Every structure is written in C-alpha cells, then in structure tokens.
Amino acid sequence: MNTLVVRPARVRTAGVRQQILLTAQQRLMVLMLLFMAAFFLVSVRLVYFALFDTSPNRGGGAAAFAPARADIVDRNGVPLARTIDGYSIRVVPTKLLNNRAYLADELVKIFPDTPREEFLAKLNGTRPTYIRRRALPDQVAAVNAIGEIGFDFPREKERLYPQLSLAAHVLGFTNAAGHGVTGIEGAYDERLIDKATRGDPLALSIDARVQGVLESELAHAVTNLEAIGGAGIILDVHTGEVLAMTSLPTFNPNNLSGSDSATRRNAVTYNLYELGSTFKPLSVAAAIDAGTVTSMARRYDATEPLAIAGFRIRDSHPSRRWLNVPETLIHSSNITTARIADELGRERMEKLFRDLEFDARPEIDLKERAFPLWPKHWGRLTTMTTAYGHGIAVTPLHLASAYAALVNGGIYRPATLTKVADGAPPKGRRVFKAATSARMRQLLRLIVSDGTGRKADAPGFRVGGKTGSAEKPGVGGYRRSSLVSTFAAAFPMDNPRYVVIAMVDEPKGNAYSSGQRTAGWTAAPVVQKVVMRAGPMLGVFPDESRDVDVSELTPLLWKKGDGE
C-alpha cells in the first residue's frame, strides 16, 4: 500500500525581509531628520541669546557655577580660604525612636570631645538642632550606622581654611550665616559674596611661605622665652604690601571653640604698646631733617641722669660720658635722645608723629585697628620721653609703616593686605628728606654691626635696625618686671626692600636668652632667623661683598682705650 506524504509549501520570505529592512531605514532617516532639526533649533536659540540678549540676568548660568563665597589666595595663588559643601549632623527630637540615653552614649563614642550631657540636652529638646557642623565623612557614616531616623545629614556651605592656623588673624573667620566677621573675611565680605566678583579669588599680598617662616620663628621664641605672646610683620617698603603678619597666641579658624576673644585679637593692628627705643631713629631723623642735628660728630652730655620737671631720665646701660649721634643710637641712650628732642622742640616732635599717623588708627584694609594712646599734654617732658618711645602707645603696624618711610627714601605709604599690581605702587607722601633717609640707613646698619642689635645680623643680608625694650605701664607706674621687647629692622640696607618687626611680650630671662629679657637678646635673634630663611624666598640673596658704606661714621665710634 502506498503512503501519501504531504510536504508543506515553501514560504517565500525574500520580499518580506526586504520590506522590513526598507521600513527600518525609513524610520532611522526620520529620526535623524528630527534630531538634526532639534539640534538646529537649539543652535539658533543659543546664537540668538549670544548676540541679542542684553537682559541684566545674562551670565547667570556662569554665576550658578561660582562658589557661594570667593576663595582667598596668597600672592602666588596658594588657597587660604575656600567654600565647600560640608556635612552636618542634625537631630529632630520628635522623630527619635531609640532611648535618648543610649543615643547619647553612642554619640560620645563618635565625638569624644563633646560632653555626654550636651548631647543629652539636645536629644531631649523640642526643636531640631545640630549635633555637629562640619562633620567628617566617617563621622557621618558612624552616626548613620546607629540606625536612628531622627538624625538627618544636611549638606551645607562651609568655609574651609586649608592651611589651618596659618595667617589666621589676617584671614579672620565667618559666622554661621556665611558672612565675614573679622580679618579679610570681614573687611571684604561684600566683595567675597558679590555675584559679579565671587568667581574670582581675592589675591592677598601675603606670601604663604614667608608667613610660615615668620610664624614658626616667632612661636619658637615665644615658647622658649615663656612669653605671654608676640607679634610680627614683614612689609614691602616700596608698596606697603604685607608679606607676612602674625599674632601670638593664634587660633584655628576651622575650629573657633578652642579659642577666646583675646586669642583672636590681632596684636599687630589692634594691641597698643609703648615701643621704647625703636622710636629713637625716628626722632633723630626728624632732628636731621629740621637742621637741629647738623653734624654726626656733635656730642651730648650723658654723664649723669637728666633731671626735668621732677623726673630723672636715665639710661638702662649708662655710658657716663659724652655721646655723639651714632653713639646715641648704638648705645641706645635715653638721655642724649631726650636732649636732641628738647632742641627739636614740641611742635616739630608732634608734627613728626602726626606725619607718621601715630595719632590715628593704622592704615590697612582690616576693621580691627586700634586708636593710639596720644599724649594729652605736649609739654617739655612729653617731648623728651616720646622721643625714646615712652608716653605714647601705638600698634606694631604703625612702627612698621614708619620704618618703611625711614629707609625707602622718605616716602610714607599705607599698608595693604591685598596684592598690588606690578608697576603700580600706591602713591605716597614725603615725610623725610631723601638725604635723611640715606643717613638713617647708615645709622641703622651701625646699630646691628656695632651696637645693641648684633644678634640680628644675618651674614650677607645687610640688616639694619633698632632694639626697643620698654617696661609695661601698670597701676602706680611702670612694671620693671614686664617688658615689651621689640626689634625693628630693614634689609638689605644698601637698597632696602623689606621691613621686619618682631615683638615678644613679657619674655622671661632664662637659659634660652642667657638670662636677658631685653630686645637685643630676645627679639633680635628672631629677625636674624627670619631674614636668613625668608630672604631668598623674597628674592634677596646673601652677598657678603656688598654693604652700606659707613666709613665716614665708624671713626666717630668710641672704642675702649680711646681718649675722651
């Protein structure tokens, strides 16, 4: 029997496949045309806004990417202050599920620097409150791991100071609302938050490297001398730019809880001191300018204390002989400086101090500036005592600006903490004759090479300067046991570029200073170390083949064995 096998008919699919492929190609073509049309419309729109949009909000897109507060950088672009998105930890007490005591115990484990009672008070409160602002990521993770829904972790704008306490008094700090309170943060608050300018960093005159040198050397001296504090500044004599400024004790602006208001006060611009014998070169310069002193060889009687108005002006290290002008400064004689001031007269002495702005707050772009203690009555005694730095109190910044004018050719310029454009120094005004300034450079160099400032001598850097050791005033008179020891210097003296002021507040006479408390043993060595380390950073290199020509003055210096 034959079996009939039925085979299925072949389906011809070639035409179908071709139709599907054609349809897909058409769809791709349509999509591509739509994409090109959209791209064309967007491009036209962008070109329109670029060419014709003049609305005041133009540029808002760029502003959206700018920081909430401008960065602050040093003169070389090193970041000193930045705004970042920081973590915070907050508790909402009404949402807490776990036992409060348990949560307080867990929080203390994460934040051992905070008392348990403080955490417990926040957990038992009625309103949301912060457990920690500016928390570290691992702290956030640890709190989150507790598993309590009553904790939340908002991201907030935080001001970060990446160099920690470096230049803390210069920078200042911001409050919880993000506004500047002190320092540059306070002085330039509007510029730092302005939408038009906050995208550009604020460049300071500070050099972070030089700042670090000044801070480390001054802190080393303050610690070893067991002093209560110190102050220091480095100033460009031609532009008024502050390359470094430090006040001790200092603080960390990232963590203000560990400091008090006294620590946060800038001693360079806000504390007042009688700066003693550092005033003597200023007084001598005024006498030279006025024609009161016409010869360096003229001698003044320092054989006995000077009696005036019931007081006796004495020298701390009596020479008991007649002294000429260079010797007056080299031996730091109060008696002969007072005699020179007496001849200069009240009006011209007062004019000197007013020309140097010792009667006003120091000129600098900070809000923290103290008004000097100005003498109420300018009698004959006041004229004499202010000549050697007693009876008038100013800030270290006043002194730095005065010394800049003393050595730079006689031009006074206000100090600034912002970077000055190259070739555009601020316009100054003349307070000393150029010839007087040249003479004072010689005399200041002699004080370091042959006088009380020997320990400030940095080989090859041609340092000149003056010591000042002043007793601090107290109830009933001056306190002999409390000194403000200051060294005011400039370098290199053959072509001065920088003023350096180092002040140590109440140093102890110990083994570190060979038992001495005066500036020649305490502040002068700080200047020497700072100049040797910071000089090359500032483009000043040691050269022992150069120096100030003092050959006409050295024969006037009395040496042991010389006749009177």
Can you give a write-up of this model?
This protein has 564 residues and is of the alpha+beta class. Strands 1, 2, 3, 4, 5 and 6 form a six-stranded mixed sheet that branches. Helix content is 35%, strand content 17%. The longest helix has 39 residues. Strand 15 and strand 16 form a beta hairpin.
**Strand content range:** 15-25%
Biggest β-sheet description: 6 strands, mixed
- The computed structural class is alpha+beta
Q: Give unreliable regions as ranges.
A: 53-62
Helix content: 25-40%
How far from one another are the termini?
161 Å
* Average residue pLDDT: 89
Task: Sum up the overall morphology in one term.
Answer: elongated
Would you spell out the secondary-structure blueprint of this structure?
Blueprint: H1 14-52, H2 60-65, E1 72-73, E2 79-91, H3 100-110, H4 116-123, E3 129-135, H5 137-144, E4 151-152, E5 155-160, H6 168-171, H7 183-187, H8 189-193, E6 202-203, H9 208-224, E7 229-236, E8 242-248, H10 267-270, H11 280-290, E9 299-301, E10 306-308, E11 311-313, E12 322-324, H12 325-330, H13 334-344, H14 346-355, H15 380-387, H16 396-407, E13 411-412, E14 429-430, H17 434-450, E15 464-474, E16 477-491, E17 498-505, H18 519-522, H19 524-534
Helix pairs in contact: 3-4, 9-19, 11-13, 11-17, 13-15
Short structural summary:
The chain is α+β, with helices and mostly antiparallel strands and 564 residues long.
